[in-house]
What we know:
Layout: E1 3-4, H1 15-31, H2 49-52, E2 56-60, H3 63-66, E3 74-82, E4 91-92, E5 94-99, E6 114-117, H4 123-133, E7 145-148, H5 152-160, E8 166-170, H6 171-180, E9 188-193, E10 197-198, E11 202-205, H7 210-223, H8 230-235, E12 238-242, H9 250-261
Parallel strand pairs: 1-2, 6-7, 6-8
Antiparallel strand pairs: 2-11, 3-11, 3-12, 4-10, 5-8, 5-9
Amino acid sequence: MSLASLPMYDLPEAAEATAELWRGLARHFRAAGIEEVPDRLTPRPVLPGHWLSPDLLFSQTCGYPLRNALRGRVRLIAAPCYAASGCAGPSYSSLLLVRAESTWRSLAGLEGARAAFNGRDSQSGYNVLRFMVAPFARKGRFFGEVIETGSHAASLEAVAAGRADVAAVDCVSFALLARYRRPALEGLRELCRGPAMPSLPYVTARGCDDDRLTRLRSALCAAMVDPALAEARAALLLTGIAIVPDSDYRRIDEMEARAVAQGYPVLA
Length: 268
């Protein structure tokens, strides 16, 4: 049986909407002639191994793994579009958040502060933050301390609680947290935004042939306009998809290369 997952925006509060979206996607995949479509998503998939399985039918990953651990080992299906501040079509940006009462007004002013990030394989929480502060780093250092939290929500909690001073957070994650956990965002303010980047991609196994890929894309397009899935899409802020080339994600490589060239290879 094929594998499927949607691990990127998996807030427990949106679990039923995610399950409903998958039921609709599965229905459209089967209607497109795709065989062995799982009835349910894989719960808590072990990453990146799950993405690298030859049985992977459908999943969503982050752009940074797509250009690193998964490069040449999965096939890009499409880029989703979201109704969130910071999104435009199949692109999104990171929001840099600080405490509302803090005096910081610029990136340069954060020198010596404590930064929280979700993980080193994150485009929106790590790679973009490294890129943005690299011009201000001195001898490979900028922050006084960096804290790996494991999730965007945990990064925001660290800032709100005063354990960290700044965090870069995917704008879709922020919008979902604003919808489902509004109190968790109290006392935070946006300092600035990162550059627009292609959104977190939908992928399938590398062994997927062109005909199967076309069927996946066709079914995905149909699901994004299916009235029966309107409520689930709205709950997840999904507005559609775009078929984009793999080359769009090269901007992630360029961002990392710029930081390295400026003597700032790791967030520090």
